[in-house]
Amino acid sequence: xxxxxxxxxxxxxxxxxxxxxxxxxxxxxxxxxxxxxxxxxxxxxxxxxxxxxxxxxxxxxxxxxxxxxxxxxxxxxxxxxxxxxxxxxxxxxxxxxxxxxxxxxxxxxxxxxxxxxxxxxxxxxxxxxxxxxxxxxxxxxxxxxxxxxxxxxxxxxxxxxxxxxxxxxxxxxxxxxxxxxxxxxxxxxxxxxxxxxxxxxxxxxxxxxxxxxxxxxxxxxxxxxxxxxxxxxxxxxxxxxxxxxxxxxxxxxxxxxxxxxxxxxxxxxxxxxxxxxxxxxxxxxxxxxxxxxxxxxxxxxxxxxxxxxxxxxxxxxxxxxxxxxxxxxxxxxxxxxxxxxxxxxxxxxxxxxxxxxxxxxxxxxxxxxxxxxxxxxxxxxxxxxxxxxxxxxxxxxxxxxxxxxxxxxxxxxxxxxxxxxxxxxxxxxxxxxxxxxxxxxxxxxxxxxxxxxxxxxxxxxxxxxxxxxxxxxxxxxxxxxxxxxxxxxxxxxxxxxxxxxxxxxxxxxxxxxxxxxxxxxxxxxxxxxxxxxxxxxxxxxxxxxxxxxxxxxxxxxxxxxxxxxxxxxxxxxxxxxxxxxxxxxxxxxxxxxxxxxxxxxxxxxxxxxxxxxxxxxxxxxxxxxxxxxxxxxxxxxxxxxxxxxxxxxxxxxxxxxxxxxxxxxxxxxxxxxxxxxxxxxxxxxxxxxxxxxxxxxxxxxxxxxxxxxxxxxxxxxxxxxxxxxxxxxxxxxxxxxxxxxxxxxxxxxxxxxx
Length: 754
Ligand code: NOJ
Known about the structure:
- By secondary structure, the chain is an alpha/beta fold.
- Strand 8 and strand 9 form a beta hairpin.
- The strands form seven sheets. A six-stranded mixed beta sheet has the order 12-17-16-15-13-14, sandwiched between helices. A five-stranded parallel beta sheet has the order 4-3-2-1-11. It has a five-stranded mixed beta sheet with strand order 19-27-26-21-22, with no helix packed on it.
- 29% of the residues lie in helices and 19% in strands.
- Among the domains are: 356-580, Glycoside hydrolase family 3 C-terminal domain (Rossmann fold); 625-753, Immunoglobulins (Immunoglobulin-like).
- It contains 23 helices and 28 strands.
- Residues 55, 83, 132, 185, 232, 264-265, 411, 502 line the site of 1-deoxynojirimycin (NOJ).
């Protein structure tokens, strides 16, 4: 009976059937529409189109829209989504965590899960029940504007961290007040568009998808992620939103996903206007729904288009009903129908957001994310210098420090444009509070991170204040003046929000504006210089390396970044972050990810090495770790077993520290060319000075297989090289060979399908 959908004691599937049976075609298709904009716009969309989803509405704005939805005939609540991808970034004053690439450098599922939980808690306090995160694109080319939103270049690491983040968002029970539905995006291969040009074509085969870009999604879907967002781009010419194989065969059939698929912003409309593959939105809407898309983000005419195609018989009733059932299922699961509190912002909002516990977690994450790239022994600063000159565009810059998708980011269209100054500890603030008692601190910005003439994406309006790119007072001359009278220069360099994100790909990845000129001028003072990089992604820093006694990459470290950096400089905490994206020497090296396939002529370029400046997995510490005695529990394994890899690690230095022990595997001879190493496990350990530990990493043999040209998963019997060490760099890895003799079914095989 129709009213059964209101009965919370009935199983969700029964409630879905009851509700579907009482819905008009318009009410059904309306659930498939996601709107955006003012409450007035929302009211129109609810009354005309019965919309089911809304994005970027929060607080009172959200409450007003929800009340309007509740007053409709069926009163189906709206599911509100928001881009909260490293903290609730679009909410003024929220706790901002380091960006995803930064987080990944901590190699810590625990920190990722905590970030997810805290983000969900703050998001829920302001109303939404859904976050558009985790971002599961694999980092390929640093020119891409969105590289910093990824977990870096390794699919295994990204899968584990994405799964942890998803656990944090969703918890064990989506009905919990602090749980939000997660969204795995951007499905799929969005990180590999040609030439790093955002939203163009990913020219990748199915085999490449299966081997390189889908496993990360499979991992996060297996973790229970309830929604998936399609990528903007095409894959071999087919928009992800219309990619039937991806959305139906892979996602639904192979992975048995029963949540829902949402498009990215207007991808249905863009397939007509920008990709030119449909005559009109009716055709495009039909193609999207037939391919397996269930909710369209903001496409004008999608509602009418789906109804028209349905009436013409181009889309069957079964297809629409299944799509709506998938959407309603998630709404029931998050408790929207049963718990009025779950529909609205929480009254205790102010006590929740930016509370001490959240700030503490943001600090811990920022500390663990920083990667020490260079150190000639100047760090840690055990004796405070008398005078410190803090210079550079990112020393005291909220926007750069908070990073993409936070207030000031172009996408924060509906957010309040200014994040409260007192809720960001800039690097300058951090240095003041850590060294201010013993040292005199001078500050001059010196120059901007970009030139005022640089063109940024014009489809968004960055919310940075007018005058943001005006020449800083005193310019480079002032920075030099304070450097001259100081004992130490701390140069805080990097990029700013307007140089990153959608539409902001870069063709030159050297530090922007006059930063190289600033460093060259400072170098002439002969003062020791520590460079702190506040960057969204790796940059080409060859021209400044000679001037720096130490380089610490802090990424976009979030609200507590200043305290984190200062604690590391002081040596209160030992740096432990390791790179998750190979750091190139020149832009021409792109792509330079560690797991490329081998050849023989590509070992160097005419003018430089083909090796990155800093390899994947690299990061310095104030201590050193010695690896020895690599062992495995056996010599020969079946396909359904796990290899237990053991290695002894000793803290051979004088200070305590954390180490990220990495395990790579190579299939010694494979019938298809394979990467020379792939990360298959890691362990993060803490060792007191002088302490040793036997570290155990378990590698499932099944994870050593691959997809062949027929799309079958294959594990070939034979030898595998196990490599363990502090980074992916060959010279640092201990290695040992093991053999795989049989497949999972214990039959002897030379290439069994798993
Ligand atoms: C644009 C972005 O590509 C996506 O990541 C985001 O979640 C949506 N639009 C919503 O803002």
